[in-house]
Amino acid sequence: MSSKSTKPEQFCGLFNLPGEGFSAQVRTEMGTFLYDRQGLQYVILERKQQGLCAAAMEEALAHMNCVQEQFSPSVWSN
Predict the structure, then answer these.
(1) Is pLDDT larger for residue 72 or for residue 20?
(2) Quick check: pTM over 0.85?
(3) I need a labelling partner for 41 at 20 to 30 A (CA). Which of 4, 24, 52, 68 fits?
(4) In a domain? residue 27
(5) Which residues fall within 8 angstroms of residue 76, CB to CB, at 6 or more apart?
(6) Residue 56 domain flag
């Protein structure tokens, strides 16, 4: 019996690390990794150029964008 997941990668959650900002945790077949915004953008672009799936990374970036919008001060407020 195989314990292999049908989904090769999975977005697990976000962390707000002191001095680092938000990091996304993504679980792959090779292990669990933390990515910052720039790292996610790089991996998404690299995978799309290679024709590979980037769904978990895109989900992580979407969550990160949503959370950062909620916590960042508005440039329009006084």
Answers:
(1) 20
(2) no
(3) 4
(4) yes
(5) none
(6) yes
Residue 48 lies in a domain: yes
pLDDT in tens, 43-56: 999 999 999 999 99
Query: What backbone torsions phi and psi does residue 17 show, to the nearest 5 degrees?
Result: -90, 130
Q: List, edge to edge, every strand of the sheet that includes 10-17.
A: 10-17, 21-28, 31-35
Q: Tokens for 60? A: 């992580």
Identify the DSSP state of 30.
T
| CB-based burial label for 39 (10 Å; 0-12, 13-18, 19+) | middle
Euclidean distance between CA atoms 49 and 2, whole angstroms: 31
Would 4 be classed as within a structural domain?
no
